[in-house]
Design brief:
Blueprint: E1 2-10, E2 13-16, E3 26-27, H1 38-48, E4 53-58, H2 59-63, H3 69-78, E5 83-87, H4 93-96, E6 101-105, H5 112-121, E7 126-132, E8 135-137, E9 152-157, H6 169-178, E10 183-187, H7 193-201, E11 206-209, H8 211-214, H9 220-228
Parallel strand pairs: 1-4, 1-11, 4-5, 5-6, 6-7, 7-9, 9-10, 10-11
Antiparallel strand pairs: 1-2, 2-3, 7-8
Amino acid sequence: MKLIPVIDLMQARVVIANKGKRDAYAPSDTPLCHSSKPQEVLSSLLDLYPFDTLYIADLDAICGSGSNLELIYTLHLDHPDINLWVDNGLTDLGRLCSFARPVIGTESIVSCEELAHLIASLPSPILSLDYHDEDFKGPADLEQHIEYWPKDVIVMSLSRVGTSSGPDMARLQQLLKLQPRLRLYAAGGVRNPHDLEQLRSIGTTGALLSTALHQGVIDHKDIDHIIDA
């Protein structure tokens, strides 16, 4: 099972995400790293475990209020061996795709046709199915048209982010039942190693992690166990 740490960027700082309420996100200051500087947060994550993949959300770009692309590129130059998955609201895709895998957040697209065009034109895109509580954030018919989806799909439970309330197991199981060949990644709510064991048991390919890493609930030993099992 693949475990991917998350960095949320806003105004060139790492912020603590909580329930998708982006206007209330505060600069990061956690037991893992008492700094909100992206370079220091990433170094702390890599000191915890030599992750080979990092998910970055450029919240300024997603919200249409700016961009952290140059900063993300600098992180890439500092750590060229790390695979970056980046959601930047589908902005400046030519530049982004030169050094990172683009994440297509459904909250940023308007139709299945747009998704189909992006899937056909982008190298190795990842789809993020964005949910807030029970509401799907994206084109209404996209959930039913699995044929439009790429193989790698993130189930982004925004209302669970930062809450330690547990992953959305029911939705993940439903999607896996519809299409067992999907490589599904759970995002939002992972509390502890037991949650990771449950995700693995239902066939989830991986999980995106932030709070549990920053609070020390999931440590190097736990990560080794889940990845190697």
